[in-house]
């Protein structure tokens, strides 16, 4: 039986980390694997070094805030440049204390991506060499991409309801 | 401004009009304030602080077609020390705020500020956590130019309004208590 490239990734992952896989889907033909948060660094290292997967390039790290679940997802996008294969890994952290380990030991390029995720979502990456804000002003006290904070600047005076007939 | 002018001027060149005064054979008397105002008005050195699309309009304003040089402002100063007019053109992010403020503080008196476009004047469409909602929250502004972005004609109109302020400003204004109090409101000096 011939396996598709995606199946190979899934099978390679399940060989060793079957118990960590929570959910597998392919929205817009993009393989997305939801994992338990505990062993994410180990799994990324495994997918990096295994010859069958070979995800040696980190495209991006980002965050998603799900207020209805009261959770923050951290999304990793990995790329196998030789086979042109991509995968998205997703872990969920509680909003009250979003903590996970850094992957800067595997990808040096994760440094700024994790700083950005910290800057906008407040995710604490344990072991990160320099976890501070990267884009926003240093004295900002909120994590602006979390949905509990209003998008608009609250100090603006020229946009009151009477101007919009409300 | 290409028009033939009588009384001795070169054809095609219009000189600044002389201020009110007393004239006789071999002398001309007027107030110092008027002479200084006339000189300053026609030699404003702008510092362009261009961050986005309004800056592109400014480039057109400086170009041959619109030619801000006609108003005595062909000499842009990229050092705030030598600039008379700070032209803020574009979105100022909150992180850029302290930089803009430092540039303003480095300018020598007398100094003027022209806020070009909706973003610099009020934050514009960027009503968001990362954008300064108008530069007048951190530095005093003399003239606002509306538009998103404003056309070069509008920027020139703003410059002419600045010229009017420069020409008619009292030489003692910058020493007055009111002026100092105004600066103190912004936490400057």
Which percent range fits the helix content of chain A? 10-25%
Annotated CATH homologous superfamily of chain A: NADH:ubiquinone oxidoreductase Nqo5 subunit
By secondary-structure content and strand pairing, the structural class of chain A works out as alpha/beta
Structural class of chain B: alpha/beta
Q: How many DSSP E strands of chain B?
A: 6
What is the CATH C level class of chain A, in words?
A: Alpha Beta
Assembly form of the protein: heterodimer
Question: Which strand order do you get reading across the main beta sheet of chain B?
Answer: 3-4-5-6
Distance between the termini of chain A: 64 Å
What can you tell me about this protein's structure?
The complex is a heterodimer of chains A (166) and B (189). The longest helix of chain A is centred in the first third of the chain and has 13 residues, at 5-17. Chain A has one domain (5-150): NADH:ubiquinone oxidoreductase Nqo5 subunit (Beta Polymerase, domain 2). Chain A has helices at 5-17, 40-49, 110-121, and strands at residues 21-25, 32-35, 57-66, 71-80, 85-94, 99-101, 124-126. In chain A, the strands form two sheets. Chain A has a five-stranded mixed sheet, covered by helices on one side. In chain A, strands 6-7 form a two-stranded parallel ribbon. Chain A has 166 residues and is α/β, with parallel strands linked by helices. Chain A contains three helices and seven strands, in the order H-E-E-H-E-E-E-E-H-E. With 189 residues, chain B is α/β, with parallel strands linked by helices. Chain B has a four-stranded parallel sheet. Chain B has a two-stranded antiparallel sheet with strand order 1-2. In chain B, strand 1 and strand 2 (27-29) form a beta hairpin. The N and C termini of chain B lie far apart (42 Å). Chain A binds chain B through residues 135-137, 140, 142, 144, 149, 151-153, 155-156, 158-159, and chain B through 94-95, 122-123, 127-131, 133.
């Amino acid at each position: 039986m011939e396996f598709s490239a995606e199946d190979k990734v899934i099978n390679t992952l399940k060989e060793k980390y079957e118990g960590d896989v929570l959910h597998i889907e392919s929205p817009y033909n993009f393989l997305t694997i939801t994992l338990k948060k505990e062993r994410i660094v180990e799994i990324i290292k495994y997918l990096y070094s295994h010859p069958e997967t070979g995800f040696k390039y980190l495209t991006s790290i980002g965050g998603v805030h799900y207020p209805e679940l009261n959770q923050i997802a951290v999304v990793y996008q990995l790329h196998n440049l030789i086979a042109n294969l991509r995968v998205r890994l997703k872990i969920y952290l509680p909003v009250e204390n979003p903590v996970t380990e850094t992957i800067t030991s595997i990808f040096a390029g994760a440094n700024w991506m994790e700083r950005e995720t910290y800057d906008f979502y407040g995710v604490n990456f344990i072991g990160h060499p320099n976890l501070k804000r990267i884009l926003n002003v240093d004295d900002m006290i909120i994590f602006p991409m979390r949905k509990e904070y209003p998008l608009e600047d609250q100090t603006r005076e020229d946009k009151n309801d009477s101007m919009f007939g409300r | 401004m290409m028009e033939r002018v009588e009384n001795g001027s070169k054809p095609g060149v219009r000189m600044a009009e002389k201020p009110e005064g007393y004239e006789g054979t071999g002398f001309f008397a007027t107030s110092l304030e008027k002479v200084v105002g006339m000189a300053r008005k026609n030699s404003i050195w702008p510092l362009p602080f261009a961050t986005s699309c309004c800056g592109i309009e400014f480039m057109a304003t400086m170009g041959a077609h619109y030619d801000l040089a006609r108003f005595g402002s062909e000499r842009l100063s990229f050092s705030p020390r030598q600039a008379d007019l700070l032209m803020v053109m574009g979105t100022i992010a909150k992180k850029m705020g302290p930089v803009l403020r430092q540039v303003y503080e480095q300018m020598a008196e007398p100094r003027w500020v022209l806020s070009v476009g909706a973003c610099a004047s009020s934050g514009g469409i960027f009503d968001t956590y990362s954008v300064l909602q108008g530069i007048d929250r951190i530095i005093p502004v003399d003239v606002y130019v509306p538009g998103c972005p404003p056309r070069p004609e509008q920027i020139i109109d703003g410059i002419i309004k600045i010229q009017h302020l420069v020409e008619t400003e009292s030489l003692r204004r910058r020493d007055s208590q009111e002026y100092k109090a105004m600066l103190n409101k912004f936490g400057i000096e």
